[in-house]
Amino acid sequence: MRNSVRIILSVFLGLNLICISIAGEPSILRETRGVWVDKSDVHKGKKYLTEMLDRITAANFNAIYVATLYKGYVIYPESKYLPQDPEVKKFEIEIYGTVAKLEEKKIDRSMIKWIIDEAHKRHLFVEAWPEYGFYSYHTPNAKADKSRGVLLDKHPELTAIDINGQPYLHNPKWGDFYSLCPSNPESHEILINILVETITRYNFDGLNLDRIRYPTKDFCFCAYCKEHFKQDTGFELTKANLQKSEVQRAFYEWRKTQLNQFMEKLYKRVRQVRPDILISADVWVPEQIDEKGQDWPTWLNKGYIDVVIPMMYWANIEGSVNASLRLVSDSHRLLCGISAEVNSSQALAEQIHLARKKKTGGVVIWYLGKVGDDLEFLKSSVFKYPARPFTSIAKQKSAISKKR
Ligand SMILES: [Zn+2]
Hints:
disordered N terminus; alpha/beta; TIM Barrel; binds zinc ion; single chain
């Protein structure tokens, strides 16, 4: 300390400390440096995950976001609501040895518990990433597959329907996706139950919401939406009617209201069981808010989420960062979702530098399977010094009061 002068700037609740040494090398003490752990990463098993957790920790990352809900499966066994991803089971045998002896049956031998424990050993912040959100099933070809997945086979009336009556979203590259109707309170209840189960059962530090939205601007035309849109706005929900700008405006607003109600209910249920968990949400950039019905500035303002992560998976993100920051009152509650898939190491480092320059809370990188080649460069440049991730505001406040 004798040879350095430290200027401490209190930026975020008095906790975001930036120290600048006399050499001018900034060491940022609080900045989330996360990476999504995709299902394809999970499917590579114990050896790969152990190596990658070691490597990202050595490169001064401090958070991971692990896929917990996708394709109509959950990652963990014995859910009350959904089957476990069958691919994961074999890794549980790999990790824990053969089938548990009778007296060990009560021991949790899930792969997700192993991942969380391994990450915590390395002091990584671990968020559950229920990737699919309202999406409930994926099939390569809906026309050849009679099923809509476990949830919708049981409750077909909850299927989200598009403007042409199609009960799924077709993606030419990826196949067909079914979604629960994001408006219906019964869908809300189902998704909330699954998310609450996930964070009650496992020791996650955060809940990283995704796909809390309508699949496209052309959803949802299910019976519930038609009936309630009419009841609430006086407009009939038909394809022809939606050509009128006042009906379209009302429809966009109505959809946002439905999802805001979902978020309020989710937030209350989550806080009942895990008052300190960080709630974050992966969202579309501002120009997509209306089309997706995803009113994330309201979620942030009302405190339903602690942190928002607009996804910017392209090369020049400055416009999107600026546009997103205009919608938030505290820049540190915004993390930039950036992609190692489409960027060189150099470009990724420049985006991280930009996120820091704009005083955002940090970055989350898509995704573990693509970031391996970038680690050395990031460690030698923008991640030279370690940093602590943002935790929930509730947790930070309780840490302060404990100190006092
Ligand atoms: Zn609907």
